[in-house]
Amino acid sequence: MGVAVLARRDVEHSRVYIDQLYSNDSQKCFQAVSELKFAVIGSVREKGSIIEQGVVVRLLQILRAPELDILLKTEVATVLNSLAKGLPEHAAALVQAGLLPVLWEQLESCPSGGSGSAYTQMLLCCLRSIYRQGCAPPPPAWDQKLLSSLIQHGYHPPSNQECVANILAHACKTNEQQQQLVDAGGADLVACLLCSPVSRVQLPALHCLTAMCFNNERVSSIIATKSYGGKAVPDLLVGLMARDRPRDMQLAAATALTFLHRAGALSADDPRIIYKTLQCLVRMCRRDREVWERVEAANTLAYLTEVSTDLQRTAAMTDHLIHTMNDYLKDTTPPNASVPQGISVSPVSCRQYDNPSTWPELMVGAALKVYASLGANDEDIRQRVIKTDVLMNTIVTSLSAASPPVQLAAVRCLHSLSRSVHTLRTTLQDHVVWRPLMTVLKTSNNEELVTVSSSTLCNLLLEFSPSKEQILDQGAVEFLCGLTRRPHPGLRLNAVWALMNMAFQAEHRVKVSILHHLGTDQIFRLLSDTDVHILMKTLGLLRNLLSTKGHIDQIMQCHGKEIMQAIILILEGEHSAEVKEQALCILANIADGDIAKSAIMSNEDVLKKLMNYMVIPNVKLQIAATFCISNLIWNVEEGAAERQNKLREMGVYKLLQNLMTTTDTGLFDKVKTALQQFH
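Structure for Armadillo repeat-containing protein 8, as requested:
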């Protein structure tokens, strides 16, 4: 009974001060806001209750009222900051109520000089709390005046600096925003903040730097040349990776240097990358470190080493890294594992560590990404990776995982391993990896996952892969032909590439199936694709389809008219020499057929094009055109004499004689062989 009475009194009391918020008496209003502040601080339930009662709208009205006292507004900003620090849905409700435009508007009216008022500091704190919750859009259109004002506020007390760095770190998302931030002086501010004696300022400054550099070559090159106190930014970052620094700061500095490297601002052989950054990240992967630290370090290390063979080789030899990653696959979270407190993970990461039950999958995903990077180019490293315990079983299991990031990491690792001929013929076949891979391809709606999976499938369909026939039996032809119609260029490229591999030295039934499911209309669309890589692989597909005399004749009998139109389309188009060389090689294959030759010989326009390419000042095109002529006039084949006479009358023989003066040995051999065919 006593508890009920107290609860009723609390409700009645809250109604009183909420009613007083709307009072015209500024003193009563101030008292109500103060009581509201003490009510919401530390109470998630009370925060939710206040928001549900619609009090936020009144608080925003107070902030916007020009006649009200700055002390009252500061108190209101304190309440809003407390509400924003609640649950993510609380912050989202504040954004929905229109908090952000009011905060930016108020901040813009605050002077940025001097030490900064308490009101300015509280506005910045509130903005920081909103952006750290991850529910806020960027500042309105990155208004340049507003951005410059925000940056100026970042040069003053540590509390302002920490807030501004956090806001910018969480709000900077696109290439355009990165550039605007640099243009407004963001790089100079970050260089200054890195030298702050206060770690709670340095850490968000590192996160801001990371957000600015990510995948942006121009911005990264500018930042790499900035300095403060006589030290360049990369050297400042090296200092922040020192072992006596807090672990999250070491990791953030290593991440910033990694992003500078990947954006091209620092080379792989730069001592700050190969000797400092790489070593720091490998050290942070050790088993004695916290889970969050190991996961973040491994993911960053995978990104650092993804493209550089030198970094891959160095990493593979450093501190038993390959075996360390194997521990990631075996480690299970202890039942009494505690959630890490007080760490600050970069907003670029987006990984969460508040649920220990997800830690094992985070560990597995990180290890698989490291293995994928290490084995990307070097066969010796690849074989060391493939021999580690439980790796293949983990990959097969992870391909069927419920978590898309884990699936993606498994596919990336499999893609890296599938670059090895030995592995394709042994380990990957033994573990039947194609089956879960096909399931991923057919069931996933994740575009990135399907893209990497289809790229892996390209390797499994190579001629020497024992999985090729089994994959064909699972309806791969129809599925891949369907992928060529997808809007994403990466998917179209991988699909055509896989079909090209599938068609190489394939049985006639496979080639017929590809042509049936793909259709000549789609071939024309692919040959008109704006992505030159797709165009080249489509020509490679046609070249593989039109191989083996019997196959060439049968395919040309059914599709000869359309194929010739496609080749003429390429030869007459504005394409590079490499593209036209492929088209000429297809003609050479057609010329190798017994019946198919007539498709070329009956088309005087194509013959004249061949003659033109024989004299064009490009050796590769000359060789391809000459090889085609040689196939047309091969003297042991039926009808060779008639074809030779026609080409002699057109002047081909004379062109070949003129080409005998070439200094290129490859072209000379082709010309000599062609001349020997003439009787």
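The radius of gyration is 33 Å.
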